[in-house]
Amino acid sequence: MYNCVIIDDEPHAIAGLSAYIERLPEFNIIKTYLEPLVALREISTLPPIDIIFIDVDMPLMSGIELAKEIRSKTHYLVFTTAHTEYAFEAFEIHADGYLLKPYTLARFFIEINRLFPAQLPQLSDDEVPESKTRDYFFVKNKDDNLRMVKVIYTDIIAVESKHNYVMIYTVKKNVMTYMSLTEIFRTLAQMSDFIQLHRSFVVNKEHIETIQGNTVCLSDGLKFTVGDNFKKVFAEFLSSRMIKTGKRW
Predict the structure, then answer these.
(1) CATH classification of 125-238 is 3.10.20.340, yes or no?
(2) Residue positions of the PTM 4-aspartylphosphate (predicted)?
C-alpha cells in the first residue's frame, strides 16, 4: 500500500485528484491539506509517505517553497498545477513529476505508472505500428535540384519551418524540402523520438544536449526557446526523463 498526501488550496482540485487516486486500490490517501502552512507544520507527524501531490500557486507559501521544506519527507513528489512556467524550478528541487491542470485520468495513470511501474504486455510483431518498422523516407531536396534524397529517422536532429518549406537537420546533411511542418510532423509524431517544442521546431529527443531554463540546445549547436503553447509538453518530457537525487546543489 502506497501512502499519498495532497496539498492544494482548491477543494475541487483535491476532490478530483482524490477520485483518480481512489481508482488505484494499492494507493491510500492519508491526508489532504488546503493550507500549505498547516501541511508544513503537520507533515512530520504523519506515517511514512510514498508520494505527495502538491499545487504551486497557493496563498502565504507557494508549492515551490513548501516543497523545499518537505522534500525529504516523501519518496516521490509530484507538482499539480495550471502553471507551466514553474517546471524548471520544480525539477531543480528534485520533483519527480509535473501534472499540468487540467489533466486527464489517462495522463494521471501514465505518470503513476512511470513512478510505480506495472508489468505491461509486450506487443507482438503484428501489433508494432508500421512507422516503427521503417528506417527512412525520401523527400525532394530543394538545394540539390529537387533530387530525391534518403533521410534516416535516427539521423534527424530537428526540423525547422521555413515559410513554405522545412529544413531537415541531420547528422550528415541538411535537406530543404517543400512541405509544411504540420505535414512532416504527422509522420514523425508516430515515432516516439520526436517532439514539437516550438511552432517552428520539431526535435529528436535523442539529440537534445542541454537545457537551460526554457532554452534547448541540440547536438549540432542549434538553439531555440520552448514556445509558450508547448511548455506543457516540455514539462512532461522533463518529468519523464530526469533522474532525481536527494542531494541539494
Answers:
(1) no
(2) 55
